[in-house]
């Protein structure tokens, strides 16, 4: 049924490598869309239960109060080393790729830097053709025709591939992170172009904090492994606040940790903050979702389901002959076009 949050038939483009013969498991580094056995699921639940004794409230509060510090430290230590650009982005989320438009053909191959430079020149000439949504105040990207916001952008592993690949002259990308260190790294990146991109520090969980973009002006909001870093009590208000920024027909894209992901099963005792919510050794926190929980968050925010699926992958360490199960959830929810004013 349309409202059910699970059981989507349409599997996306992500995985095409299926493990049919278990003896072949070490032939590749990863297998896609792996079905779990009942034993495996039961073992995972048992493991999570063993480590579900929450830390004392004062300890939990400390991680909440100092979250900013911990993330700043994280980016200071790792800077750019820890991160790979996300090659799956455009197959999973074609909403981020250049849009096919009537006046020019879509050539994914031909997006070299010369094209982009030409595009930004074209953009300067064509801004008057695109009416801005809000004429009263000039905000960054107010003359753009297609606006993307990435929340929790880190050092720009999603933003920069979008800017490099998507040469739509009407594109403007906003990106924000809780960590001022991360935002600084984005702004000092040689690929950062203030004419096409605006990076700012923002705490997603503080719904009083204002965004530099008016409500109803965004086409796409991207959340990649970021909602899971919020305190579960703050998730609903944060998603509802973000939903207001979308224009009718706009879409929210999410990819995040699913329940019983290997990372959840690997937590040692004494790391659990509350149900399915943990603190890592470096003080950063992470939640592991079910499809239904995410469905509820989005629909409560007034959005409608386009996609909600689990991506189970089997990752293999060939050297150590270890198998590791990853569980990610991918969602797309859009803002319906309101007919009544």
UniProtKB/TrEMBL annotation:
CDD domains: AdoMet_MTases. Residues 42-64, 104-139 are annotated as: Disordered. This is tRNA N(3)-cytidine methyltransferase. Its EC number is 2.1.1.-. One of its GO terms (molecular function) is tRNA (cytidine-3-)-methyltransferase activity. GO terms for cellular component: cytoplasm. Signal peptide: none annotated. Keywords: Methyltransferase, S-adenosyl-L-methionine, Transferase, tRNA processing. It is an enzyme of class 2 (transferase). It comes from Mastacembelus armatus (zig-zag eel). S-adenosyl-L-methionine-dependent methyltransferase. InterPro entries: METTL2/6/8-like, SAM-dependent_MTases_sf. Belongs to the methyltransferase superfamily. METL family. It comes from the Eukaryota. Residues 112-122 have a biased composition (Acidic residues). PANTHER family: METHYLTRANSFERASE-RELATED, TRNA N(3)-METHYLCYTIDINE METHYLTRANSFERASE METTL2A-RELATED. GO terms for biological process: methylation; tRNA processing.
């Amino acid at each position: 049924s349309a409202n059910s949050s699970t059981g989507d038939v349409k599997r996306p483009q992500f995985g095409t490598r299926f493990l049919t013969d278990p003896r072949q498991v070490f032939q590749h580094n990863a297998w896609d869309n792996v079905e779990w056995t009942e034993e495996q699921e039961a073992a995972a639940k048992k493991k999570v239960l063993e480590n579900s004794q929450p830390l004392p409230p004062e300890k939990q509060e400390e991680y909440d109060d100092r979250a900013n510090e911990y993330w700043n430290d994280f980016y200071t230590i790792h800077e750019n080393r820890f991160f790979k650009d996300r090659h799956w982005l455009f197959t999973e989320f074609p909403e981020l790729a250049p849009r096919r438009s009537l006046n020019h053909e879509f050539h994914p191959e031909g997006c070299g830097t010369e094209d982009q430079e030409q595009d930004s020149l074209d953009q300067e000439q064509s801004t008057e053709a695109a009416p801005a949504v809000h004429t009263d105040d000039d905000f960054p990207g107010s003359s753009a025709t297609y606006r993307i916001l990435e929340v929790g952008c880190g050092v720009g592993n999603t933003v920069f591939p979008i800017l490099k690949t998507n040469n739509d002259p009407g594109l403007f990308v906003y990106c924000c992170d809780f960590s001022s260190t991360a935002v600084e790294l984005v702004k000092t990146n040689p690929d950062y172009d203030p004419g096409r991109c605006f990076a700012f520090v923002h705490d997603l969980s503080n719904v009083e904090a204002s965004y530099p973009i008016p409500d109803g002006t965004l086409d796409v909001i991207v959340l990649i492994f970021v909602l899971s870093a919020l305190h579960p009590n703050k998730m609903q208000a944060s998603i509802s606040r973000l939903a207001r920024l979308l224009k009718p027909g706009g879409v929210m894209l999410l990819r995040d940790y699913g329940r019983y992901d290997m990372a959840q099963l690997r937590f040692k005792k004494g790391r659990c903050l509350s149900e399915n919510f943990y603190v890592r050794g470096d003080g950063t926190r992470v939640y592991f979702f079910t499809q239904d929980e995410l469905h509820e968050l989005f629909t409560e925010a007034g959005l409608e389901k386009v996609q909600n699926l689990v991506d189970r992958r089997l990752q293999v360490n060939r050297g150590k002959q270890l198998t590791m199960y990853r569980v990610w959830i991918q969602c797309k929810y859009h803002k319906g076009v309101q007919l009544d004013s």
